[in-house]
Amino acid sequence: MSTTIETPGSGAVQFFDRQFERQVSAVEYALNPFEQTVLPYLRGDVLEMGCGLGNLALAAAARGCRVTALDASPVAIADLIRRARTGGLELEAHAAELRHFVPSRSYDAVVAIGLLMFFSCDDARALLARLRDAVKPGGVIALNVLIEGTTWLESFGTQPYCLFASDALSDECTDWKTVLSRHDDFPAPNATLKRFHTLVAQRPETVAARTGSR
């Protein structure tokens, strides 16, 4: 599936807390390119895992979606709740540990942009299976991960992380309709590289949910 790097401790949440604090102070709330890409495919009940500052969650709520947004960063969730109230938008937002999260119900769309690579590959694969099974028949899953060939590793800190194989996401959704599949490379600090795969896949209307992982 991918390359797993196991290292002790954790630093990703602290890394992103600092980034979120800077963005809040600078009022930087633009959708990133991956959020812009998946937004048109979101409808109905939406679960966003690793929502960060909630820019996509708010945009989806503004389009009429019923959004549940989760992130491990209390800084991000507090700011998202504040902005939702200010904008008069209805959504649920909670700080949560996401590695072992189990959805309690099904959704029309499940989103994980830039999340799964922050876990070991075993944990990422298991979480992906649970998220996939939480999609209603005919619904979509929207995923974005860093893939092998990425050399910018600063955001991982000292925690386990996973660089996915280039087509690992597609391999996990082989019986679904591929709505969008795109690979992107971006230059990163210190002459490093970020390589991404973005996938939007639609669950068939008649296929029962799968459990476990491949």
Distance between the termini: 10 Å
Quick one: CATH superfamily? Vaccinia Virus protein VP39
Strand share of the residues? 25-35%
> How do the strands of the widest beta sheet line up side by side?
4-3-2-5-6-9-8
> Which quaternary structure do these chains form?
single chain
Helix- and strand-based class? alpha/beta
Specify the CATH architecture.
Answer: 3-Layer(aba) Sandwich
Model description:
The chain has 214 residues and is α/β, with parallel strands linked by helices. The protein has helices spanning 12-26, 33-38, 55-62, 74-87, 121-133, 168-171, and strands at 2-5, 45-49, 66-71, 91-95, 107-113, 135-146, 161-164, 177-188, 192-202. The strands form two sheets. The protein has a seven-stranded mixed β-sheet with strand order 4-3-2-5-6-9-8. Strands 1-7 form a two-stranded antiparallel sheet. Helix 3 links the parallel strand 2 (45-49) and strand 3. Mean pLDDT is 88; it is low at 1-9.
Helix/strand layout:
Elements lengths: L1 E4 L6 H15 L6 H6 L6 E5 L5 H8 L3 E6 L2 H14 L3 E5 L11 E7 L7 H13 L1 E12 L14 E4 L3 H4 L5 E12 L3 E11 L12
Parallel strand pairs: 2-3, 2-5, 3-4, 5-6
Antiparallel strand pairs: 1-7, 6-9, 8-9
Helix pairs in contact: 1-4
Question: Could you write a compact summary of the structure shown?
Answer:
Helix 1 packs parallel to helix 4 (74-87). This protein has 6 helices and 9 strands. 28% of the residues lie in helices and 31% in strands.
